[in-house]
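Postdoc handover notes: sequence design on the structure in folder B. Input C-alpha cells:
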C-alpha cells in the first residue's frame, strides 16, 4: 500500500500527539512540527504509510530528545487489559467456536492504537466482536489452513492489544508451534519484547523481532533471519495497519487481522471505517 495524501495530516496529528506527551512548551512543539515539515520534502512517492510515519516520527523524537514517549501509556494499557483477561477468556471458552471468538476479540483489540485513535472505549468494541463479527471474514479459510499447518508466524501490533493477541495465541498453541513478532525498538505504542514479557506472551511461545526498527514488515529492511522465518511459516497472521500497509502485495499468503481505522485503509480493504477484517491475501 502506498502513501495517500490523507496520510500527511494524519502524520502531523501523530507528531503533535507525540510532542504533547513530552512537553507543554508551545515553541518546542512548533519546532517539532517544523522538523516534520522538512521531512516531507524528502518523502519518496513509493513509500508505504508505515515507512513514511516511522521516518517522520523518528525525526520528531530526535528533535525532542526522547526515545520512548509512550512508555507509561503502554504500561498502563497492558495492565488495564490484563485485568480483563479472565473475562475475555470466559467469552472464548463459552463460545460455540472458541477459536473464532478469539480471532474476533483480537481484531477488537486493534482499536488500541494511540497513533491513530486517541480515545478508545474498548468495551464497545468487545461487545461488537461478540455481536457483529467481521465485514470481511476469511475464517473458514484460516481454519482450513490451520488443519494442515505446523508453524504459525503471528505479527503483533500494539501494547494493550497484545493481551487480546495472547488469548488467540493460547488457542493456536494447543495444536501449533507459534512464533510471535514484536518491534525491535520503541515507536508509538507498538509492542516490544518488554511488553511481550510483561503480559506473558513469552510464556506461551517464542518471541522474535523483525530485525529492523520501522513499522510493519518492510521486506527490504528486515533481517535475513526474519525473512527466513517468514518464508518458512505455514500460516502468517499479521495484526494492524502497519503490517497490512507493508505486506499488502508481498507475494505470500498472509491473513490480515485488523480494524480499518482510517478511510485510506478502509478503502483499500473495501470496507467501512472501523469495520473488523480478517482477510486472506493469496500468494502470487
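Designed sequence:
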Amino acid at each position: 500500500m502506498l502513501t495517500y495524501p490523507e496520510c500527511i495530516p494524519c502524520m502531523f496529528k501523530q507528531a503533535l500527539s507525540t510532542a504533547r506527551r513530552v512537553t507543554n512548551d508551545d515553541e518546542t512543539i512548533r519546532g517539532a512540527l517544523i522538523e516534520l515539515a522538512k521531512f516531507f520534502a524528502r518523502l519518496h512517492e513509493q513509500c508505504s504509510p508505515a515507512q513514511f510515519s516511522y521516518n517522520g516520527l523518528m525525526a520528531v523524537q530526535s528533535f525532542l530528545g526522547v526515545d520512548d514517549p509512550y512508555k507509561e501509556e503502554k504500561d498502563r494499557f497492558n495492565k488495564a487489559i490484563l485485568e480483563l483477561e479472565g473475562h475475555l477468556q470466559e467469552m472464548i471458552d463459552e463460545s460455540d467456536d472458541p477459536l473464532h471468538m478469539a480471532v474476533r476479540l483480537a481484531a477488537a483489540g486493534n482499536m488500541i492504537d494511540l497513533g491513530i485513535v486517541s480515545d478508545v472505549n474498548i468495551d464497545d468494541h468487545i461487545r461488537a466482536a461478540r455481536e457483529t463479527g467481521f465485514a470481511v471474514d476469511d475464517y473458514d479459510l484460516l481454519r482450513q489452513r490451520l488443519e494442515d499447518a505446523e508453524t504459525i508466524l503471528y505479527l503483533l501490533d500494539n501494547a494493550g492489544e497484545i493481551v487480546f493477541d495472547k488469548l488467540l495465541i493460547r488457542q493456536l498453541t494447543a495444536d501449533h508451534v507459534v512464533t510471535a513478532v514484536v518491534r525491535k525498538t520503541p515507536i508509538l505504542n507498538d509492542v516490544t519484547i518488554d511488553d511481550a514479557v510483561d503480559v506473558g506472551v513469552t510464556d506461551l511461545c517464542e518471541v522474535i523481532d523483525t530485525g529492523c526498527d520501522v513499522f510493519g514488515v518492510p521486506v527490504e529492511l528486515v533481517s535475513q533471519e526474519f525473512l527466513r522465518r517468514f518464508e518458512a511459516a505455514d500460516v502468517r497472521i499479521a495484526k494492524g495497519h502497519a503490517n497490512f500497509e507493508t505486506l499488502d502485495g508481498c507475494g505470500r499468503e498472509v491473513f490480515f487481522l485488523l480494524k480499518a481505522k482510517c478511510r485510506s485503509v478502509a478503502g483499500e480493504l473495501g470496507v467501512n471505517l472501523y469495520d473488523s477484517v480478517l482477510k486472506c491475501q493469496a500468494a502470487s
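Context for whoever picks this up: The chain has two domains: 7-64, 71-281. Don't rerun without checking with the PI first.
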